[in-house]
Structures
1.
Amino acid sequence: MKFRLYPTKTQEILLLEHCGHARYVYNMGLEQRNMYRKAFGPTPNYNAQSAQLTEVRKDSWLKEGVYIVQQQALRDLDQGFRNWHNGTHGHPTFRKAGHNEGFRIVGLAAKRFERMSRKRARVNIPKIGWVDWRWTRNPGAIKSYRVTLDRAGCWWIAFAVIPKPIPAPGNGKIVGIDRGVAQSFTMSTGEVVKIPGLSAVEQQRMLHLKRKLSRQKPGSNRHKKTKLLISKLEHRRVNRSIDAVEKLTTRLAGSFDIIRIENLKIKNMTKSAKGTLTNPGKNVKAKSGLNREIRKNGWGRCDRRFQDKIGDRLEKINPVNTSIRCNVCTFTDTKNRKSQAEFECLLCEHAENADVNAAKNIAAGHVVFSRGGLELSRPVSRVPQLLLQ
Ligand SMILES: [Zn+2]
């Protein structure tokens, strides 16, 4: 969301100074990366450069400037390199004075703004103070903003916003979601959503490209070209996955009052495979295979997007026994699970797809039995059984 910014003459000089600092740090970082690439191979990443910036700032003129402005310039540079690696953009180039002038403010400093009248608002920019901007609509919850100067000499402020949460439909409906490797997402309604990956043809092509890459000489032009083709294909897969998760989370957020998922420590699950030096992971190969699947299926993204879109309408359920408990009679036994796909209760003979059974247990936010004791994942549901879908 972009708005016209109206600095005074004095403020304009200060804004240009911020732009200058951002440009200087950006170009310095780029030069360093370019140099390293030619001389040593691996280039210093964002964290390394950010640490260096802190060092350099201790005794140089840079300390006169605003730290966030300079740090975010390195972030921009890092993003530029990421885009280049992903094959969506060209290699980052040096910034020139008068071209694409701008800087970014993030965090708490980005939240200092207020509306003055119907058409006027102001933002408090670090080391500059209150600068007026033209209010045309409500920017909402702000994450960060970027101030830019266009070629016509006009200043702009563009806000990056946290999207507004989706309102509850108010129908009292609850849905449980079971996340599996094979099927990705199974809803307690019986619906299954699979996050698309690459098509069979594309997978073949990926395999072919990877074999080709391993035969080519690293650093050669052919090697580079193959690498670019691989990253383009990979990028296509990631975009598809993001798109599917966006659609799924928006649709469910608008159709159910409460969404329940298992409280899985995804970060731990994906991190722990390799273990630490003193505590090496067990079964590393199998686990990292699972981890790859989890990342591919967008579990983490799904969690985050639900968090953004519905806030506390998302409920996390204790995952213990959800896959082996009968959702009809609550009898819990590992033998209930006949196979990966089949569930058949030993007590009441209720038979169902195993993932759907698990999703229904999750929807119920049920009492789970573990280690001989009663464990309440949450207060027993107040919602009548009929409403559970
Ligand atoms: Zn049963």
2.
Amino acid sequence: LKRPFVFINSAMSADGKISTIERRQIRISGPQDISRVDGLRAESDAVLVGIGTVLADDPGLRIRSESLRRDRLNKGLSENPLRVVADSMARTPVDAEVLGPGCLIAVSMSAPEERLSRLSERCEIVKCGAKRVDLSGLMSILYERGIKRLMVEGGATLNWSLIAAGLFDELYVYIGNLLIGGRDAPTLIDGQGFSMDFPMLELSSVERMNGGALLIWTVNREL
Ligand SMILES: NC(=O)c1ccc[n+]([C@@H]2O[C@H](COP(=O)([O-])OP(=O)(O)OC[C@H]3O[C@@H](n4cnc5c(N)ncnc54)[C@H](OP(=O)(O)O)[C@@H]3O)[C@@H](O)[C@H]2O)c1
């Protein structure tokens, strides 16, 4: 499969939660980490999230720093990376921050036509997968469009699907200095979980940051 280099970036509490039990976004990292994430966006060709994250957080997924946006324009790139949402049933609200030029919603063949026609006024739509977005299909489509470096910004369910399908290469995890708890609060990776053949990682960097730490893990396909 020809696909982009895929890395997941996430912030979690010291107990591995990425939001609260109410799925409410809370501040896990600090200013240094926020600008690090901005830098990662600026170096990416596209940013991908799941519809759960759009509904919970309504992220804009654009680069915050004006100078990073200007650098991209000077290099002949688009001001922001392509913003992509995996949204099988086209549930993205028409007033979602992510929409607008430079946004692509990946839907399945089962997405209702009337939602698609409303959404298509605000973004581009691609169909792949019968009932759910076929992530390997989406990767091929993105690769064909020149996306070589894809940043995944969650959430828990999309992270799981990508990892379970072997569609990721690197994991950036910021571990913040707080505890969230709650059995049903989203973790870095939810989904079904592995019972065997656990993906193995190699630790490539550890850095203290904003009272917590940033870990960079690479997939170790040899283990
Ligand atoms: N701390 C952080 O770094 C961070 C970052 C992002 C999000 N979050 C938190 O994570 C939570 C959201 O996570 P979430 O697990 O609810 O949602 P999510 O992973 O953002 O989105 C999951 C949804 O994506 C859609 N999807 C489409 N194709 C898929 C596929 N092949 N595999 C998996 N999902 C697919 C599914 O809905 P359909 O079937 O309708 O398509 C699925 O329910 C929020 O509480 C948010 O605050 C935290």
3.
Amino acid sequence: MSEVASLAQRLLAGDRRALARAITLSEDGGRPCDELVQRVFPMSGRAQSVGITGPPGVGKSTLIDCVIQAERERARSVAVLSVDPSSPFTSGAILGDRLRMSRHFVDNQVFIRSMGSRGAAGGLSRGMGNAVTLADAAGWDVILVETVGAGQIDVDIVKITDSVVLVLMAGAGDSIQALKSGIMEIPDVIVINHAEDTRASETFRHVREALSLRPTSGWTPPIVKTQASTGEGVGNLQRALGAHRDYLASNGHLLERRREIARGQIAGMVMAQLAARVECAIQTEERIDSFLSDVAARRKDPVAVAQEITNVVTQARSAAQRANEGV
Ligand SMILES: Nc1nc2c(ncn2[C@@H]2O[C@H](COP(=O)(O)OP(=O)(O)OP(=O)(O)O)[C@@H](O)[C@H]2O)c(=O)[nH]1
Ligand SMILES: [Mg+2]
């Protein structure tokens, strides 16, 4: 049996170390990861996946700790995936997160892992999307994905979970501005954390106003006030998430959401494959090499050459496809 096949088998049997290893593969994003995802994908789709996003420092990890607690009380297993705290937005957070979620580290029904990306731009959301698939196939009941949206929320990263929670902080005017500038469609639930802050009610009103600009659809995001440091309001967050889950379960909304996830995921994969092909063609194709000299010497312009390279790459693709099909 190949190494990946055996890893897939252990992962599907619920082996935690296999999941950890699989996620490392998804950070690398290479061929073994693709093969693994292909093997386990049919067994995924059962988990409840929830993205928790929001500006730095608003209390996302503290809130996740509370959600873990609430889910464990219902005997559900929880996997937490977060963006690598070595990213510029979250420097030094890993120690803090270890403290914040420390009470769950010894629980074998809780899996906590931070992820980075060694690949190109977009690699992180691709790796994270794959990691969600892997944790799902591995049988975790709830998958929480923590991402940082600095100012404007990273739209890509939120397209990998069934529900998205946007966490804001009481008194955070900037975040509400960000809400108004076009991200209203992203969250399914909005949390105003630091509910003990006297500005919480005012922030609540601002968020409600911003939400009223959102095109009406079947689902209106509930706004929930929490104080993550004490656990206050977390029950309401759980209820809001449950309501969203019920909404998705009705009238084919879940399939629609998963089509959206598939769209983002597949587009990312196709772009990565094409980018690799372009990179390879530029390195190895003599014709392209001569185009570069033509541009340098002003015999051709870069726009025309880009078009020609696109032609070369897409021709190479159909040639490869033909070879594949045995034509
Ligand atoms: N007063 C108060 N403090 C809170 C609350 N929630 C979290 N905190 C504190 O805020 C700080 C940051 O919380 P985190 O949970 O690390 O925030 P985060 O959004 O995960 O931060 P990054 O991952 O770095 O973006 C910690 O010291 C928490 O204890 C709250 O409701 N009220
Ligand atoms: Mg955090």
4.
Amino acid sequence: VHRFSQALRLSVLDDLGLIPALRSLVNGLQERYGTRTELAVKGVERRLTPEVETAIFRIVQEALNNVGKHAQASEVCVTMEFREAGVGLTILDNGRGFDLTASVDALPRAGKLGLAGMRERARLLGGTFSIVSGSGKGTCLTLDIPAPKASPA
Ligand SMILES: Nc1ncnc2c1ncn2[C@@H]1O[C@H](COP(=O)(O)OP(=O)(O)O)[C@@H](O)[C@H]1O
Ligand SMILES: [Mg+2]
């Protein structure tokens, strides 16, 4: 059932595109946890490569799971920005936040793969991923993916 529903979600991505797929994730969080959620789209929406769309979908999925599981937030805002060159993504919640004193590298050893996985997905796409959080201060995750460099002639 789990694998089937994963496949179903990815076909939503292929058939409807990134923004409707993100909207379904955002609505899901609202339904399951009652968290007020917003999806903002900046710039002119366009299709991205399947690798980039899948990575963004998975990052938002895991980030919203974390908000539901850990944040006790009343609001979360997902912003997807289509820039002339590249794309940006932020997931901002107003929940309890957490201290990032130990590095993200140490989390997988404790069986926590979510944040490390997001950062790895970003790295594989040549992007950057940052986490800003603090106890009582909410959490902001940011992904930046630059336009692919033109190959030298
Ligand atoms: N949005 C959030 N709000 C509060 N705490 C968070 C949030 N996201 C992550 N965390 C904290 O960071 C830890 C690591 O997250 P993650 O790598 O996804 O592992 P897991 O969700 O399996 O615990 C969580 O256990 C939690 O303490
Ligand atoms: Mg997690």
